[in-house]
Structures are given as structure tokens and as C-alpha cells.
Amino acid sequence: MKLSQSLCASIAALALAGSVAAADQSIIVQSTTSTANSGLYDYLLPLFQDKTDIQVNVVAVGTGQAIKNAQNCDGDVLLVHAKASELDFVEAGYGTARTDLMYNDFVIVGPEADPAAVGGTTDAQAAFAKIAASGALFASRGDESGTHKKEKSLWAESGVDPSAASGQWYRETGSGMGATLNAGIGMGAYVMTDRATWISFGNKQDYKIQVEGDDDLFNQYGVIPVNPAKCPSVHVDAAKKFTDWLISDEGQSAIAAFEVGNQQLFFPNAPKN
Which of 57, 111, 185, 260 pairs with 51 at a CA distance of 20 to 30 A? Predict the structure, then answer.
């Protein structure tokens, strides 16, 4: 039996509507690697998806690349940790608004032998100056990630230009945090990392945290919906639901509950309405 043309058209229209609806229930989050590598999304996303039926797909890259991807309309939500760059993103019209989401801190890790004798200090700038003066190896991500941006600001504040020693004691990996830690440990170099990645990292060998506790090592994360005025393909409703959930009491409690090895990795600090 042949279907009438009108019935075929109706079925096609329903199929198209279904595919559009499915697309509307799926979003892309452009994100920093630390949130993904720590396992945070593996914990959070099923909670959100069970509540909303919205599928969240995460692209985990350095903050600089995540921002570029979002500016190219390759995402619905931006979740990164370089506040000045995030505010520039919003100011340029690519994001609707930026909201503080959560924080942790950066630490400087190094071998137990501690060749630059920085262990136990809480002054990151002084530690960087001592590393440079000693000629001890330092492995940098060198990738314009949020971690790299913070590292560069600390070098500048310490009065050191490490680029002059590029390829000597200052080694730029151009890689993500996990790969840079592996490379740094392999060559016996100091590495600055976010604490969440360090806690989750499985190849510590004889390395330990040498420098921590400086206010300058504070690490703030922000969340920004991509602006449909710049990127008409944005799934506005689904992106808003995800952002609103992250900063809600429920989402903030879920962030606080995430632990690795009985250690809390991120501390929620979204503003209360």
C-alpha cells in the first residue's frame, strides 16, 4: 500500500520537528581542562541530565582556546578560569553575562629534592624568583590556558622574564595540564598546576606540593552563556537551564559534594539571588 503524498509530508515534518527538538536538548560547553580532568563533569552532568533530559557535551581545552571556540560560535556555554579574558569576552558581545561559579587554588609542585629550595614558602612570586635564580627546571604549559595566564602574571610580578630562558631552564610544553605534569616530572622540573588536577593526577612519583597558600594563587572559575545575537545557532533555553542549574543551590551543593580521595576539589561561590 502506497502512502499519500500528504501523509509522507506529514511524517517528514514530524521527523524534522523531532530532530530539531533533540538538537535543542543538547548543548556544547567549551571548558577548561581542569574541570574535565578532575572528573567534575562525570559527577555533575548525570545529575543535570536526569533532571532536564538535556545532553551536555564538553569540549575540554585550555581557556584561551575555549574562548576562541566560543567566539567562533562553536558552543552554547563557556566555563573557564581567566576572569579578565572572560570579561573581555562579554564586553565584546560574545557572552550574555559572566557569573562566578566556584574556586580553588593553584600550587607549585616539585621533586622532593627541591633544588631551588622553595619548599614551604607561601610567597609564589619569591618562589618564582628563586627558581629562576637557581636555574632549576620549570615546565610551563605555554598554551595561553587560564593556568598559563596566571603563571605569566606571577613571573611578571616577580620581575623575571622566563621567555629569555626558553628551552634552557624554562621549558614550554604547549600541552594540557596532565601532559605538562607528566613532562615536568619526567625532567625533574617544577610545575604550577591547579590543585584539582594535582589531587586527581596519578603519576606523582616523588613530587609534592612545594608552594601553596598565597592569595595570588587563587583560582576563580566563571560561567557564561554564549550570546545568540553573535551566534544565532546557540540553544538559548537549554544553555540558560544549564547555567541556572550550576549557580542554583542544587548545582552549588553538587559542586561542593564532589570529592577525590576524600578531598573537596572545587568550592562553590556563585552569588546568591
Answer: 260
